[in-house]
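S.,

Sequence below, as promised.
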Amino acid sequence: MVEYRDAELGGSRFEHTDLRGAEFRAVDLSGARFRAVALSGVVMRGVELDGVDINGELRNVTINGVRVDEYVSAELDRRYPDRVRMRPTDPAGFRAAWDLVERLWAGTVERARGLDPVLLHESVDGEWSFTETLRHLVFATDAWVRRAILGDPAPWDPLDLPWGEAPDIPGVPRDRAARPALAEVLALRADRMATVRRVVDGLTDESLAADTEPVAGPGWPESIGFPVRECLLTVLNEEWEHRLYAERDLTALEARPR
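The prediction came back faster than expected:
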């Protein structure tokens, strides 16, 4: 165990660092940024949260004795009434959810076409650019539909983009330097969305309730079986959340001086 006492570590960067079980006492974290960090089981006492912006998955989160994750989820459902449709329970619900995904993304893409193509490669506040977002959704489809559900051990396209903090996975591309034209990315994206459409159109109660067969060979997800329902819910969640991020960032890009 390393102990820091009265240490000046301002501006330090911790990446792929194991801090499980660490204790922070009388520590100044003002202005700190946390990205892709695991905070399960964290206990905070006597903290001051002012101007804090948290975006992530909340489960069993209690603040000052109040269970807040349920409030947050209910408020998001209120703000976005279609959000509840991303949690379908039967084949018809999954088909309706994908109908909605296709319609919403069509509007977002049309909005993006109105921008200077150069801006579609620009990051907003350190997040993915618009084209990187589309590439990541291609990866999500390849991982959870083409690999996990359809059994292709290596479904990847060179433009696939895993999540930002993903480890190096043999055979899985992660070219962050690529700057493909929007038309190229949209063609790839259309192909993958058509794959999801074929899968959801062919769903039955039995196939939705089944588990996938483990896929031989390295890749993501790992070579184990998964509930088909969970694979498709993962894809729907990725589609929903990343479109909201894209819309948020397009607003910022539209506000930049021409």
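The helical segments are 69-79, 91-113, 130-147, 182-201, 205-209, 228-254.

Coffee later?
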